[in-house]
Design a protein that fits this description.
By secondary structure, the chain is mainly alpha-helical. The protein contains 4 helices and no strands.
Length: 168
């Protein structure tokens, strides 16, 4: 039996070989890409970590520089005699001789903030009328003489103030 030769049979075989070569090229290229990713992945991870560390260090550097600026400003303030005097008066309670100072001591016990007082939800009627209280206050203020006030002021000026020599 004689085989029939198809016209262009050699071209068909060449096209099949060419497609196999193209597929082989694609597989080789894909293998190279996968190999490159596997080889470069640890390096890229290290690079990303280093970039993050650099960003953190830059942030810490900016914070440290801001702290240096703040400390320089504070040093300049402490070189001002008025600021030093103010701090000595406030923090150390220093006073000049002859100054009268008052120290207000908190009379509430430790931790007593008034939160344990029971609050009533009932409505409570007032025992007096507010209008009458207002009128009585106005009448007392209107009828009080200024002579009593002047006498109190005069007595207050006669009271000697404490001095440094009296404490000894």
């Amino acid at each position: 039996m004689a085989e029939k030769k198809k016209p262009g049979g050699k071209k068909l075989v060449a096209a099949n070989l060419l497609s196999l070569q193209a597929s082989g090229f694609a597989v080789t290229l894909l293998a190279l890409i996968v190999t490159g990713v596997v080889i470069l992945a640890p390096s890229l991870r290290v690079l990303a970590e280093q970039q993050q560390e650099i960003a953190e260090l830059r942030s810490a550097l900016a914070d440290a520089e801001q702290e240096v600026v703040d400390l320089a400003e504070q040093r300049e303030r402490w070189s001002d005699p008025a600021y030093v005097e103010t701090q000595a008066r406030e923090r150390l309670m220093f006073v000049y001789p002859g100054d009268i100072t008052y120290l207000v001591i908190d009379d509430l016990a430790e931790g007593d903030d008034g939160l344990d007082i029971p609050i009533s939800t009932d409505i409570v009627l007032a025992e007096s009328d507010w209008r009458e209280s207002l009128l009585a206050s106005y009448l007392v203020a209107a009828t009080t003489s200024r002579a009593a006030d002047k006498e109190l002021e005069k007595q207050a000026t006669l009271i000697p103030s404490p001095s440094v020599g009296d404490a000894e």
